[in-house]
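User: I'm curious whether this sequence folds into something compact or stays loose and floppy. Could you predict its structure so I can see for myself?
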Amino acid sequence: MKNRNMIIGIGVIVMAGLWYAFRPELLFVNKQVNEQFPSQQATAGPVTVAKGNFKSLAHETKGFATIYKLADGKQTLRLSEFETSNGPDVHVYLTGAEVEKGSDAIKTAGFVDLGSMKGNKGDQNYDIPADVDLSKYKSVTIWCARFGVNFGIAPLS
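Assistant: Here's the prediction. I'll summarize afterward.
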């Protein structure tokens, strides 16, 4: 009886750990985001610095990535008509890697983490730190930090 209870206890702990690591419910839950574009107080509108279309890699990913320079000098990444899979610990990165070189190239080339993905569907904005030199970054990627998987990538031009 004692061994049986211990096995059940260990089984529960293992199952909880696996659930935490994989978060399987996120495969079925979509998080819709519809952020407005940052408002402009000046007469000059935002200037497009770079843009690209998402390509699917590990998960179907679609939409547009556009980097804007706002009238106040701030830079913002906007994902529009965006859609990908949900998952645990998914981030938006600017990366120096080329699309064709795959997930390992992202780690090697370096990246700037713009934060956790706000939602797996919809329009959303990410502030780019002022000290980021955009000439070093060739693409926007949706990266699962927990498993080191590249969901999708948008080459910038």
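Summary: The chain has a mean pLDDT of 86. The chain has one domain: 31-155.
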